[in-house]
Write a structure and sequence with these properties.
The structure holds 2 protein chains of 2 kinds. By secondary structure, chain A is mainly alpha-helical. Chain A is 59% helix and 4% strand. In chain A, the strands form 2 sheets. A 4-stranded mixed beta sheet of chain A has the order 2-1-4-3, with no helix packed on it. Chain A has a two-stranded antiparallel ribbon with strand order 6-7. The chains are: A mainly alpha, B mainly alpha. Chain B: This is EF-hand domain-containing protein.
């Protein structure tokens, strides 16, 4: 039972009135509410802990729950208290807000729980004091990122009916969704690696023939390398075109970084094909080949770590900018100083300020090649100051970048762990849900027993069977009404499978139903116009004669079969209920008469007399009460 | 050198608020609504103070912000029907409760509708039900609307039913309904036809009184 929303049960039951005109059968009786529950209310009694404060304190903020008339909804007149069923610990900070005017965020509190409390009491989080606001914002951001991760997960596993294009796009973006996507992923990865290695090996000298000087492999085996290059570029081109085709927004795809990298990676090849062996442009062509190295960036689709690195750099853009800016300033300052310090010395390498840039950079990054060295004393002094400050300037922004990277990396790891645990979580949730639906089926069996006992008026059993709470019985009554409206019952999975196998038989052979009643099947438990459809072409004469036995209902358009038990719930229960229902066959809930003529039409005369028919029916099957009635 | 670094750090700090602006914008969209006073609601509905208190507490617990949007509504309603899919019927219910078509249900709407359903006269209840069935609010219930409603009700049963649900079960149910309700056989059911037909049927009349003592 959904006890969390127990307070909404009256609403759900009231909404059931919407089913009433649609239903064809009468509804079951509602459970009686014998005891009226009284709630105890105490002034600012929050889950048992009493808080006392002046009314004027609360009135300071009239646009919140405690400061406005809304708290009257929570007032209890008998005990003269306001009762709130909320967390007392979180309430402390809420009440302190009224007292001191400052809202604080307790660090031990979960961010979503705290947000809920604030929303309940009508306080906007922006009022959180400066002392706690940073912490609040940080936790909130983490929570939002976690929620977005969860949402992305849900996006992966939806859309059963996507068209081909969308399936392809999903396969490209998430290779683990299908085997084809995984194969494609690995194949492209392999070819990227091949292409990069080819580019590298091309330049290695492999001169094995002694008469020729050392040539790079690229010029010795031109054809082979050309073929490999062609193959790789073809694969990349096909991949790019497929992605372009599958992308939901082609314009946005073309603008994205990965697609630009793809284009840049394959363009040199095509340009090379187009260009002739012209001496002037071949120089430019060689430069273009440099761009082939961009193919290595295509690996970022395959490696999550690379993506995280890229994302980190993007998110630390301000820190990186700061680093660059400060370095530039320092370089200019020190280059100028070194130039003027070394101006005096002869054969100095520091020919100009831009020439000193190289020395400054090499010194500040503690490389120290030694190709440019100061010779004057002043130059050496300033050179040492330069290298010391270089260490400081570089060391400052790096930890910020590192901490950002670490945070994002850990978040990703947590997301992966959550994904792995999700299946187990969902399985457990499903089991819990099944528990609640099984509860209804279980209580139906018990409930019918107690209904019978209700009518036979045996007092002691009545109390024994009322072990389910009033809330549960009301919820089950609601589900029972739904069953009556739709004229179908809830069953559990195994019985459903069983009935599927045997299901079609009764409908096709109504004449044999009288004999097959003991093995029941389709006759019991339906209260539906579907059966009436089969009956309408019946010879009206035989049926109209049965009308005299009914309660005077004129129109025949449906057969109502009331079940006295749940034959679908297993034969063991059936036998026990058989005994009980045979007693009550004369006096069932609605007091309808039993007319059994309809059951087997080819031989109506045998079924005309009600009284003679009743006992056979109740003993062969499980007390089916058949009634003819108008719709 | 230190002064240089200091000025640069101040510069980066100023750039921070712009990044948080997006978060701030999202936060402002949280809507908070407070209902009218207890006395007014007591006068407008058929509930007494204590009942309104109980209802409000339940309402506020599920929706601290004071309004129910359709998602929350569907979630709450689905918890009562774990077997099947209650979201379709919850959608129609939501539209019936949300008389102002604002996209969210406030406590006043909620209590007004409950007052009709639990404490109203038979005619009021039937009128409310007619409004529920009349999806496009044109004053007529046609077969498509009724089929939608009945299919939604059948969806709540879920897959495992006895006897097994067939695809044309809702349609046949709708046919039977129209047989009963559509007096002049013009293919639509008007409010008067509906009320008249329901008043003629004892079962319906009796079942309407079923939830009198819910509160």
């Amino acid at each position: 039972m959904a006890t969390g929303v127990a307070a909404w049960l009256p609403f759900a039951r009231a909404a059931a009135i919407g089913w009433m005109p649609v239903a064809n059968c009468p509804m079951p009786v509602a459970p009686r509410d014998h005891s009226k529950k009284k709630d105890e209310l105490i002034i600012l009694n929050v889950s048992g802990r009493r808080f006392q404060t002046w009314r004027t304190t609360l009135d300071r903020y009239p646009d919140t729950l405690l400061g406005s008339m809304e708290k009257e909804f929570f007032y209890n007149e008998e005990t003269k208290e306001y009762f709130f069923d909320r967390d007392p610990d979180a309430f402390r900070s809420v009440l302190n807000f009224y007292r001191t005017g400052k809202l604080h965020y307790p660090r031990y509190e979960c961010i979503s729980a705290y947000d809920e409390e604030l929303a309940f009491f009508g306080i906007i989080p922006e009022i959180i004091g400066d002392c706690c606001y940073e912490e609040y914002k940080d936790r909130k951001r983490e929570n939002a990122e976690r929620l977005m991760d969860d949402q992305e997960e849900n996006k992966d596993s939806k859309l059963p009916n996507m068209n081909f294009r969308e399936t392809m796009w999903r396969a490209f973006e998430n290779p683990h969704t299908s085997t084809m996507a995984l194969v494609f992923y690995y194949v492209t990865g392999f070819f990227i690696a091949v292409s990069v290695i080819t580019n590298v090996v091309e330049t290695v000298p492999c001169g094995s023939t002694p008469n020729q000087k050392d040539m790079p492999c690229g010029e010795r085996y031109t054809v082979a390398f050309f073929c490999m290059d062609t193959a790789c570029v073809m694969i990349f081109t096909v991949e790019y075109l497929l992605r372009l085709f599958a992308a939901p927004s082609r314009y946005r795809f073309m603008r994205s970084v990965m697609s630009i990298i793809d284009v840049v990676a394959i363009l040199p090849y095509y340009i090379g094909l187009v260009m002739t062996d012209n001496e002037d442009v071949s120089g430019a062509f060689v430069t273009l080949r440099v761009f082939r190295v961009f193919r290595i960036f295509k690996f970022s689709r395959h490696s999550q770590g690379l993506r995280i690195l890229g994302y980190t750099l993007k998110s630390c853009a301000s820190e990186l900018g700061f680093l660059l800016f400060s370095l530039t300033m320092a370089i200019i300052i020190f280059a100028t100083v070194m130039f003027y310090a070394e101006k005096g010395s002869s054969s100095s390498k520091f020919t100009s300020i831009p020439a000193s840039f190289w020395y400054t950079i090499v010194t500040m990054t503690t490389l120290g090649y030694g190709d440019m060295v100061p010779k004057t004393i002043a130059g050496k002094i300033f050179g040492s100051i330069c290298s010391l400050s270089g260490v400081l300037v570089i060391a400052l922004p790096v930890p910020v970048i590192v901490s950002n990277f670490s945070r994002i990396y850990h978040q990703n790891q947590r997301a992966d762990k959550r994904r792995a645990q999700k299946k187990a979580r969902l399985a457990r949730i499903r089991i819990a849900k099944k528990g609640s639906s099984n509860a209804y089926l279980q209580s139906k069996r018990n409930g019918l027993l107690s209904e019978l006992l209700d009518l036979t008026g045996s007092e002691e059993e009545e109390h024994v069977n009322k072990t389910t709470s009033l809330l549960e019985s009301q919820h089950h009554h609601l589900l029972h009404c739904l069953e009556k409206t739709t004229a179908h019952e809830f069953v559990d999975e195994q019985l459903y499978e069983q009935n599927c196998v045997e299901g079609a038989v009764p409908l096709q052979s109504p004449p044999s139903r009288s004999s097959s009643l003991s093995s029941h099947d389709g006759v019991t438990g339906t209260c539906c116009t579907r059966r009436s459809r089969k009956r309408i072409p019946l010879p009206n004469a035989s049926l109209s004669t049965t009308h005299t036995h009914t309660q005077g209902l004129q129109e025949l358009s449906a057969i109502r079969i009331q079940y006295g038990d749940e034959p679908s719930l297993g034969s063991s229960t059936r036998s026990s209920l058989n005994l009980k229902t045979s007693e009550r066959s004369g006096s069932n809930c609605q007091g309808q008469h039993i007319t059994t003529a309809i059951i087997s039409l080819p031989s109506p005369p045998a079924f005309h007399p009600d009284s003679t028919v009743v006992p056979p029916i109740t003993t062969t099957s499980s007390s089916n009460v058949v009634k003819v009635s108008a719709l | 050198m230190g002064a240089v670094v200091g000025t640069l750090t101040m510069q980066t700090k100023q750039r921070r608020p712009s990044r948080d602006k997006v978060d701030d914008d999202l936060e402002m969209t949280v809507v908070c609504h407070r209902p009218e006073g207890l006395e007014q609601l007591e006068a407008q509905t058929n509930f007494n103070k204590r009942e309104l208190q109980v209802l409000y507490r339940g309402f506020k617990n599920e929706c601290p912000s004071g309004v129910v949007n359709e998602e929350t509504f569907k979630q709450i309603y689905s918890q009562f029907f774990p077997h099947g899919d209650a979201s379709a019927y919850a959608h129609y219910l939501f539209n019936a409760f949300d008389s102002g078509h604002s996209g969210s249900i406030k406590f006043e709407d909620f209590v007004t509708a409950l007052s009709i359903l639990l404490r109203g006269s038979t005619r009021e209840k039937l009128q409310w039900t007619f409004n529920l069935y009349d999806i496009n609010r044109d004053g007529y219930i046609n077969k498509e609307e009724m089929t939608d409603i009945v299919s939604a009700i059948y969806d709540m049963m879920g897959k495992y039913t006895y006897p097994a649900l067939k695809t044309d079960t809702p349609k046949q149910h709708v046919e039977a309904f129209f047989q009963k309700m559509d007096k002049n056989r013009d293919g639509v059911v008007t409010l008067d036809e509906f009320i008249l037909s329901c008043q003629e049927d004892d079962n319906i009349m009796r079942s309407l009184q079923l939830f009198e003592n819910v509160m």
